[in-house]
Amino acid sequence: MSDECRHMDTINAVMPSAKGCEECLKTGGWWVHLRLCRSCGHVGCCDDSPSRHATAHFHATGHPIIEGYDPPEGWGWCFVDEVVVELPDQTPQQGPIPRYV
After folding, report:
1. Residue-wise pLDDT tens digits, 15-56
2. Half-sphere exposure in the Cβ direction for 39 (13 Å, CA)
3. What pTM value is reported for the model?
4. How far apart are CA 38 and CA 70, in angstroms?
5. With b meaning 16 or more CB within 10 Å and e meaning fewer, what string describes 7-17?
6. pLDDT digit string (tens) for 86-100?
7. DSSP designation for 9
8. Domains along the chain?
9. In 10 A of CB 30, how many CB atoms?
10. pLDDT at residue 2 in the model
């Protein structure tokens, strides 16, 4: 674990991939909160959700930084360095996003 994030250069302005967790919407699953990949725009569910799709997306792709996205929360997290990161901007929500819990 680091005191600072070494992956800030991976943050992109992205278009959210779905109006909810992309995988949960496909499978009929549900989520607690949403996380937005700031490398590619994938929307996945948080680790409090049963399927933890945001973390699964990180493990599958190596994309390190997510944004709290439900509702837009303005914070970021680096999976690799395990630190909160200050994002240069906030991604507008492509809502309304349905709530499942």
Report:
1. 999 999 999 999 999 999 999 999 999 999 999 999 999 999
2. 15
3. 0.92
4. 14
5. bbebbeebebb
6. 999 999 887 777 766
7. G
8. 8-85 (3.30.40.10)
9. 17
10. 59
